[in-house]
Amino acid sequence: MDEKETPLRLGLAFWFTGFLLLIFVPLLNLLPQDSLFYISDFTLNLFGKYFAFAILALGIDLIWGYTGVLSLGHGVFFGLGAYAIGMHLMLEIGAEGVYGSSLPDFMVWNQVKELPWFWKPFSNFGFSLIAAILVPMIFATFFGFFVFRSRIRGNETNLGGTNGLTDFKIILGYSLNDPSTQRAMYMLTVFFLGVAFLLCRWITQSRAGRVLIAIRDCEQRVRFTGYSPANYKLFVFVISAGLAGIAGALYVPQVGIITPNQIGVLPSIEMAIWVAVGGRGTLIGAIVGAVGVNWIRSILTNHFPELWPFFLGGLFVAVVMFFPKGVVGIFSQVQSLVTQRKSKSMNSKIAEATK
């Protein structure tokens, strides 16, 4: 009875949460500003960014939580997706830029006379969107092929240099400064978060998902049974890279900037901490961790920016030492402790009665 009810409850919880985030929350944003339940444009945009991070966290949970491979390269995949859309948005600015040139402002500043060849395809939105997903996946395919087969556990780029890409104005003809555009971007992010969650859940509940868990628990035993762990790890690595690319593509129009500081190993470590804090190997934990940690970051960096690195490190240590299953695992841990105490109490009473 319980086994049949659990999927039903999960399904109802998913659709109810989806309705709240996708329909109800944007409606609150349309209320008068003096309303008690009004959600500001800033808050809506902030949570749109958090949910983009949540899509990225789902990909990390898929490769780390379910397969046991800690990836510190997802910041790069996120950046590839972000830069693909960012390049398109820079070209959309056109003559509305500071210098009134068809070239992006940073190119004019650096005395670039002609648009570089690799920028030209990004004038098309469809190409940019496909590139945001496929480029991280292709990169992950080649990188993962060599890594898993071996069983291993500036300005000159014309990409804006250390300043990155910023000052975006238009997407598909709509102003990014318009609250309705940002509202649409939020709803689009929530929709893709739901799709990403369903995709990850489908994978983890399938036969392939059981193999992934077996690889995580004992890869050598899986290899002895005739399966190829490298192929499974490569598959899930590519899928997670695609999710990171989608997250980056949704992040840029809402935040308005992407820089090299936001990609690489250090940001990837922080992304892994999101998943660890939420609870890896759960999917829900990845979403909770990404949203929760970034929400706390927004608060701390506004009031005590110098404390954030120490807080993040302390949070990670606390999770590893006291809550290895993350936030979502706290309830099960508490329930397990209560059950153990009741069992010990019962056993002691039985022992006393038999004396």
Describe this structure in words.
The chain has helices at 2-29, 41-65, 74-93, 105-109, 125-149, 179-205, 207-224, 229-255, 265-278, 284-303, 308-322, 326-353, and strands at 165-166, 170-171, 174-175, 257-258. It is mainly alpha-helical. The chain has one domain (40-290). α10 (284-303) packs across α12 (326-353). The two termini are 40 Å apart.
Residue fraction in strands: under 5%
Helical fraction: over 70%
Principal-axis shape equals globular
Radius of gyration: 23 Å
Give, in order, the helices and strands: HHHHHEEEHHHEHHHH
Secondary structure category: mainly alpha
Number of strands: 4
Mean pLDDT across every amino acid position: 86
Number of helices: 12
Strand order, main sheet: write it out.
1-4
Structure at a glance:
The protein is mainly α and 355 residues long. Helix content is 71%, strand content 2%. The protein has one domain.
What's the structural blueprint in terms of helices and strands?
Blueprint: H1 2-29, H2 41-65, H3 74-93, H4 105-109, H5 125-149, E1 165-166, E2 170-171, E3 174-175, H6 179-205, H7 207-224, H8 229-255, E4 257-258, H9 265-278, H10 284-303, H11 308-322, H12 326-353
Antiparallel strand pairs: 1-4, 2-3
